[in-house]
Design a protein that fits this description.
heterodimer, A: alpha+beta, Alpha-Beta Plaits, two-stranded antiparallel ribbon, 2 helices, 4 strands, elongated, B: alpha/beta, Rossmann fold, 2 domains, 12 helices, 15 strands, globular
């Protein structure tokens, strides 16, 4: 899909809003729901991957150094990663306006 | 050769669906269902109609099965009535919003409580805003003809919307009438095969009924609104071609002896025939009365209604449903709103009657015209008149 859904006009919509391309949910920015974001102290991260496993959104990835980070386009800020992190490497911080 | 047969109208609908060669019929077979699906089940069981008959466990499931069927591109039919239509309610919106060309006949009935299976338009009015194309019919022939037209309208790529054909419960659904049936070859020429543009197909997967967040919902609804309004031209074209081929013509609003009429009656459904007889009698008594029949309920024929009543002094609308605590008759309410901005329009008087199978006969229509004319002259403290109700 060339346009994001917030750019589509009523004429752009397929009959019955049928989605003809697979995986277009990728364009849905669930990150706008967030009121808190995870912040990282990588000195404490032991790369265990528990945050990756527990993340209900599946939006945590491993960066070049092997530490785990979240993709803020999708992260809803639920805080489960911070709760589960055994070394307290993740802290939730308030989103600023 | 003309095939003319006397049949119960419900049974005749089965014959029409057979002529349309429907692929799938999903229906709930218990009260308040009619003989429509009973006959179709028989036709399928006897091998006369090559279709899947799905006897589902509720009306909600019936319409849901129709969604799936139509989504594969199968020609899909169902029928319901009264309470059954109510149970379908949620799924009706899904059918129109997903643009699935389903055809459904509704034998219009009253809603409980008190428990009633008799005819009126309570069920129709409750589904007014579901986004379906809706057509009222007056007699068995009109039902048969419009079932054939409905498939063609629904499946037209400029439309792709579900269509409801309304017939009055009992007063029409259970009557035995003489009807003409076109030959199979004629129907095949009139009604091309269904060719749904984006059917469910494992080789070309699509997602139907996806979710629509706030960023897109308004656009989706506006597209639907533009679409149902535009369906009007296709409906007119279909009726025109049907008339050319079969000699029976239909239009969104029909007129009976309206020329120079000072007082007009407006009715829908089978009561229009009785009203026409009443108009004949009143005309022979020297009264300047005419009849306007509303056939196309959705999309609403604003222009045709304005045209039909222009020049009349009084317009009396008979509704067979009641909008509780509101304007009274739902159809009259829409007629009033269609006329409100007009520079010159007749005085509109609203009657509600014929509820729950109560008959309205020729003499009653004459009384309605008399009282309506009086109210138009002298005014009334009531929003509407409840015709024939006992008590002070």
């Amino acid at each position: 899909m060339a346009k994001s859904e917030s750019e589509l006009t009523w004429q752009d919509i397929e009959v019955g809003m049928i989605a003809t391309e697979p995986a277009n949910a990728r364009q849905y920015q669930t990150g706008t729901w967030r009121s808190q974001r995870p912040t990282y102290n990588f000195d404490r991260c032991i790369k265990c991957g528990l945050c990756y496993i527990y993340c209900p959104e599946g939006c945590i990835y491993q960066n070049a150094k092997g530490h785990f980070e979240t993709n803020l386009f999708y992260c809803k800020g639920c805080g489960i990663c911070a709760q589960e992190c055994p070394t307290r490497a993740i802290t939730m911080a308030e989103e600023e306006e | 050769m003309v095939d003319k047969r006397g049949l119960e109208v419900s049974v005749a609908i089965g014959e029409a669906v057979k002529l349309a060669d429907a692929d799938v019929i999903a229906a709930y077979p218990i009260t308040p269902q009619t003989h429509i699906v009973e006959n179709l089940a028989q036709l399928v069981a006897d091998g006369e109609l090559d279709a899947e008959f799905i006897p589902v466990e509720s009306e909600h499931s019936a319409m849901s099965a129709c969604l799936g069927s139509a989504a594969t591109g199968a020609r899909t039919f169902t029928a319901t009535a009264g309470q059954g239509l109510e149970l379908m309610h949620e799924v009706l919106y899904v059918a129109s919003s997903m643009r699935l060309p389903i055809v459904m006949t509704v034998a219009n009935r009253a809603l409980s409580a008190p428990l009633s299976v008799w005819g009126d338009h309570s069920d129709v009015m409750s589904v007014r805003d579901t986004g379906w194309i809706q057509i009222f019919t007056e007699n068995g022939q009109e039902v048969v003809d419009n079932v054939l037209c409905a498939f063609r309208i629904a499946e037209d790529h400029r439309v792709l919307l579900p269509v409801m054909i309304h017939l009055d419960g009992f007063h029409l659904s259970h009557m035995i009438e003489a009807m003409f049936f076109p030959e199979q070859g004629e129907v095949d020429q009139f009604l091309p095969p269904n060719n749904y543009p984006l059917p469910l197909d494992p080789n070309k997967p699509v997602t139907m009924g996806d979710f629509g967040p706030p960023a897109i919902y308004s656009e989706a609804k506006w597209a639907q609104e533009v679409n149902i309004r535009a369906s009007r031209d296709v409906i007119l074209q279909c009726w025109q071609e049907f008339g050319d081929r079969f000699g029976r013509h239909y239009s969104p609003v029909e007129h009976y002896r309206t020329e120079d009429a000072k007082v007009l009656l407006l009715t829908m459904g089978s009561f229009s025939e009785t009203a026409a007889t009443a108009v004949d009698e009143m005309r022979s008594e020297g009264k300047n009365v005419g009849l306007v029949k509303l056939r196309l309920w959705r999309p609403f024929p604003f222009d045709e209604i304005r045209q039909a009543v222009k020049g009349a002094e009084v317009l009396i609308v008979l509704d067979r449903a009641l909008s509780f605590g509101g304007p009274g008759g739902p159809v009259c309410s829409e007629i009033k709103s269609a006329l409100y901005q007009q520079e010159k329009s007749p005085k509109v008087v609203s009657f509600v009657g014929g509820l729950g199978g109560r008959d309205i006969q020729v003499a009653d229509f004459k009384e309605i015209v008399e009282r309506g004319t009086e109210i138009a002259e002298k005014g009334s403290s009531r929003e509407f008149e409840m015709f024939g109700v006992r008590g002070e």
